[in-house]
Write a structure and sequence with these properties.
Blueprint lengths: L4 E6 L3 E2 L9 H4 L1 E7 L3 H9 L14 E3 L4 H5 L3 E2 L4 E2 L1 E6 L5 E7 L7 H16 L24 H6 L1
Parallel strand pairs: 1-7, 2-3, 3-4
Antiparallel strand pairs: 1-3, 5-6, 7-8
């Protein structure tokens, strides 16, 4: 079982969370922070155990211990009656505003690919504030104007 962690993506534009061995940080101007309710001693054991043995191995981002559960409570992932935190992922912009969040049950993992796509879409609309990214948008694909008349150009092209 992986540490019960909350991942937070922070960057000049955003902070991001993803798989233990993956860190897109510099190329996407993003910083990843992992937050877990486990102790620093538990974290040490996880990173000293390689991935093939069920550990985290060479973790590419900081893992913060939230033994007081204050961070987990602040991000509404804490289940106080059970003393556990759900799997949360938050993309936070440079102003400290949560732009995207997902909270999964402990039995459900998160998708690095979808997190990357969402992060890239968010960065795109921050750089192009007069455009929006349609569902499933990926870098290089057409965006659209958030206007009933102007959006017809996008719909006519798909």
């Amino acid at each position: 079982m992986q540490p019960r962690e909350l991942k937070i993506c922070l960057a000049p534009p955003l902070y991001k969370k993803s798989a233990p061995s993956y860190h897109p940080g510099p190329k996407l101007n993003t910083e990843i922070l992992g937050v877990s309710i486990d102790s620093v001693f538990s974290h040490l054991a996880w990173v000293q155990t390689d991935r093939k043995s069920g550990g985290l191995g060479d973790l590419k981002y900081p893992l913060i211990s939230d033994v007081t559960k204050s961070i987990s409570k602040s991000y509404d992932v804490l289940i106080p009656q059970q003393g556990i935190a759900l799997r949360g992922l938050f993309i936070i912009d440079k102003e400290g505003v949560i732009q995207h969040s997902t909270i999964n049950n402990l039995a459900i993992g998160r998708s690095v690919d979808e997190t990357m796509r969402t992060l890239q879409a968010l960065q795109y609309v921050q750089e192009n504030p007069d455009e929006v990214c349609p569902a499933g948008w990926k870098p290089g694909e057409k965006s659209m104007k958030p206007d009933p008349k102007k959006s017809k150009e996008y719909f006519a092209a798909i």
